[in-house]
Write a structure and sequence with these properties.
18 helices; formyl-coa transferase, domain 3; alpha/beta; 11 strands; Rossmann fold; 38% helix; 3-stranded antiparallel beta sheet; 6-stranded parallel beta sheet; elongated
Length: 405
């Protein structure tokens, strides 16, 4: 057994932006050899997204892109050129997995879809992941995770009221779908190990996202009720929310508190050194029914207090509570430091850069962020010369023809 769980797995990665690059990053950080295929003529949009090194826009200086592409090699090809597609076909026999995240027509138009590639490599596993899958009336609609989060219903149920949508942060479906695509790729590898057969995976990010709305969907099927935005209100906990504390160094500070029952309510009041004579808050049911008034009351108690000291007191009293942390807090968090979560890798352009660590810990085959994300075309010579046997003159000619670009 090798050091890495996925050592020996080879992936040809045509994906971009979030879902599939995150998926293939899981594999790369666990030992798979991943070759990321890009083009300077049509940049991955994350290369154009901040934060950039020293706040200077640079396609090779985006930490956003870098965080999703550790441990990978990178080559550049303009797939609109027939010669570029010829080079891809020469790489396909090497690959166990091909991953792509274009709209359905792209790979078909280039004759790089599964039906064509399986003729070259019959045992190939191919993952296609896009907004709404490869079939259906809306399959060709392009978009990003923000739009998919809206279509999936997340924007409707988040926020504080129906008139002021407050969507969850970022391209929300991009953070859900990779967990499904990584799992199904592992299943496909196991299936091929047992049967010798590859297969095609059509991963609709729409369908994957709906699994995180299962409670709301089940409730609708059972009762006909359509859930809506409720802010931090809960049907089981009260108080339940984020409450303002004393400012620190000019920054707002908050604490998240969740009280499960009457005993914890009394413990919370004790930790705060407070008493409450309001009959509305005497029982859990009363506190839930009067959540807005309860929040005002709790905010009045927490406002002059230090969030971290209050956390300590509430935790000691058996009440679930923790400070609301910002990005700087996370980089100084003692638990993350104890986990050795943050990794500094030497990037070819950005130099030493911080990366988030692995999301799992396997004792026998620990993964590792083996290298920083590649700059554009960083491994062109290694792949085109070392793997495909092209001469320096051939590579130079392909660059002049904007095939390698």
């Amino acid at each position: 057994m090798g050091r890495f769980a996925l050592e020996g797995v080879k992936i040809l990665d045509f994906s971009w932006v979030g879902v599939a690059p995150i998926t293939t990053k899981y594999f790369a950080d666990n030992g798979a050899e991943v070759i990321r295929v890009e083009s300077a003529s049509r940049l991955d949009v994350l290369r154009l997204a901040p934060p950039w090194k020293d706040a200077r826009p640079d396609p090779n200086g985006s930490q956003f892109f870098a965080s999703y592409n550790t441990s990978k090699k990178g080559i550049t090809l303009d797939l609109s050129k027939p010669r570029a597609r010829e080079l891809v076909r020469k790489l396909v026999p090497w690959a166990d997995i091909v991953a792509e995240s274009f709209t359905p027509k792209a790979m078909r138009n280039w004759e790089l879809d599964y039906e064509h590639l399986r003729q070259i490599n019959p045992q190939l596993i191919m993952l296609s992941t896009c907004m709404q899958g490869q079939t259906g009336p809306n399959a060709l609609y392009p978009g990003f995770g923000q739009l998919m989060a809206a279509l999936s219903g997340f924007y409707y149920i988040s926020g504080y009221d129906k008139d002021s949508p407050c969507p969850p942060y970022g391209a929300y479906s991009d953070f859900i779908a990779p967990r499904f695509s990584a799992s199904v790729l592992l299943a496909a590898l196991d299936y091929r190990r047992r049967t010798g057969k590859g297969q095609y995976i059509d991963m609709s990010q729409y369908e994957a996202s709906l699994h995180n709305l299962a409670p709301g969907l089940i409730d609708y099927f059972a009762t006909g009720r359509v859930i809506g935005p409720r802010g931090n209100a809960s049907e089981r906990y009260a108080p339940h929310g984020a409450y303002r504390c004393a400012d620190e160094d000019g920054n707002e500070r908050w604490i998240a508190i969740a009280v499960a029952d009457d005993a914890q309510w009394k413990s919370m009041l004790g930790a705060l050194g407070a008493r409450c004579d309001d009959a509305r808050f005497a029982t859990r049911a009363g506190r839930i029914a009067n959540a807005a008034a309860l929040d005002d009351f709790v905010n009045g108690l927490t406002r002059p207090l230090d969030a971290r000291e209050l956390t300590r007191k509430l935790q000691e009293a058996g009440v679930a509570a923790y400070p609301v942390q910002n990005c700087m807090d996370l980089h100084q968090d003692e638990n993350l430091e104890a986990f050795d979560f943050w990794h500094w890798l030497e990037h070819k352009v950005m130099g030493p850069s911080p990366y988030e660590g692995l999301q799992h810990r396997m004792s026998r085959t620990p993964g590792d962020l083996r290298s920083a994300a590649p700059v554009l075309g960083q491994h062109n010579d290694e792949v085109f010369s070392g793997m495909l046997g092209l001469s320096a003159a051939e590579i130079e000619q392909l660059k002049k023809e904007n095939v390698i670009v």
